[in-house]
């Protein structure tokens, strides 16, 4: 399922050390799992650039806001939703 490599995530985050590689790999897995659930279907093949960008945005949010509490209100990133909306499966009940 991996769409984002560790090197791509580190470039996106501007991380140039290896001390948090295992942590970042966990964040990539968490972001991809969440997005897969959010989309409600299998990963589109080939992976569209907007979905990959959304994974990177979520990894960035998880990396920057790793504490449960924050000194400011955290809101949903509208860009994330806009990138994923065209690929989301919506079941009709």
Automatic annotation (TrEMBL):
The organism's place on the tree of life at top rank: Bacteria
Name assigned to this protein: Uncharacterized phage protein (Possible DNA packaging)
Family matches, as InterPro entries: Phage_gp6-like_head-tail (IPR021146), Phage_HK97_gp6-like (IPR006450)
């Amino acid at each position: 399922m991996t769409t984002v490599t560790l090197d791509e995530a580190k470039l996106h985050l501007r991380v140039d050390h290896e001390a948090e590689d295992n942590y970042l790999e966990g964040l990539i897995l968490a972001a991809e799992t969440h997005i897969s659930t959010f989309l409600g279907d299998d990963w589109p093949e080939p992976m569209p650039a907007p979905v990959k960008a959304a994974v990177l945005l979520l990894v960035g949010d998880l990396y920057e806001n790793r504490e449960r509490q924050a000194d400011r209100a955290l809101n949903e990133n509208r860009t994330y939703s806009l990138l994923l909306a065209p690929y989301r499966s919506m079941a009709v009940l």
